Prior knowledge:
This protein is of the alpha+beta class and about 400 residues long. It has helices at about 20-40, 55-70, 80-90, 95, 100-110, 170, 240-250, 290, 350-360, and strands at about 1-10, 10-20, 40-50, 75-80, 110-115, 120-125, 135-140, 150, 155-165, 175-180, 185, 195-200, 210-220, 225-230, 235-240, 255-265, 270, 290-295, 305-310, 325, 330-340, 365-370, 370-375, 380, 385-395. It is about 20% helix and about 40% strand. Helix 1 runs parallel beside helix 2.
Amino acid sequence: MEIVKTRSGGIIHLRLIGRLDNHWSQSLDEVLHESAREARHVRLDFSGVTYLSSAGAAVLLKHQNEAMALQGSLEISAASERARSTLRLMGFVELLLAGSGTSGSRRKTLSIPLPLDSESASFESRVLDGKKSVCSVVGNPEQQAQASPISIYRDVFAVGVGALGATQEECRDFFGEFVGAAGGAAFMPTDGTATPDYMLSTAMGLVPAIQALHAITFRGSPSYQLRFEANSPETGVPLSDIVRASVSLAGTPTVGIVMAADITGLVCARLRRSPAQNGGVQFDFPAVREWLSFTPEREFARFSSLVVGVASASPSASLAPFLRPVSGEHQGHFHAVVTAFRSLPRGKLPVADIVAAWLQPRSVVSVVHLLRDSRAIEGAGESAFQRGACWIFPIAEGGAA
């Protein structure tokens, strides 16, 4: 027997030619073990199989069960009439053959491949129950304003400049980048301590309250879950590719994104001083150095992150001042909570559970604003991630209120 192995994105393709008997089933077993270490999805072409024994079928069923346990899949994408007839007599057609009723419905409940052409990553998506979310803005990043309170309930997501506290006066010396998501909030104080603070909601009624100088918020439940994994561990998956995939999946020009991911490297900045002091941030050089800390190259490799933001291909007039280019087609605003490494579970993930797991004592390292530095020679590029899960929130028409 001949076994030809190729890879397309996150899917391993195996083409078998000849007899799949007891002897060759052992070789197939080894190839499938190797393939499972490289990708979670395997497609088998049996159009050249002239004989299939019970031993061969047993190997297929074993590896299919193992793939399903890891939220992957193993299917026969094409089969000769001889192989198809044998599978039918064994009662395995619906279990193994693609497009044969039970197999198709089972795949729909597990994961749905996202048809995205990407050289950097493999993507797969899952349909969730959420409807279109509502987006709104607080303040204006180009103007000074009084702080407004934002309560981070379990269906609220926000990024901007603010602080955990009850009043603007209380937070005056602390305002920095913040992230709010699904009942949790973290921010980077600008009082010189360089120690991020966070708060989680509780069953007893505690809800994190952010005093925000300016912010983008969206409210609702995710409509999709998108998983990705880098094809190259050295380069990772650029944020622009993740945004492009998310917008494609959402089907709306504007989308809210929450992401838990392993970091390849972040290109980012954070405030050094509170904008509520001394008339606000000075962006003129060299004064800007006293207000902002930039990364000249990617940082935080091998840490984990909780990223929240909004991207749009055609932002509304109220949303546009908050956004900057994240790719050739999209503008966005993203903040990241950098944490100690966290292993991301497989399967359907409730976003609130992941937020609570990521925001733990001695785990939160920093809160930063993600940048795209596209300068031709000196530019650091953009942030990239090794693997992760995104929750996608299509934004209702209008973009932001």
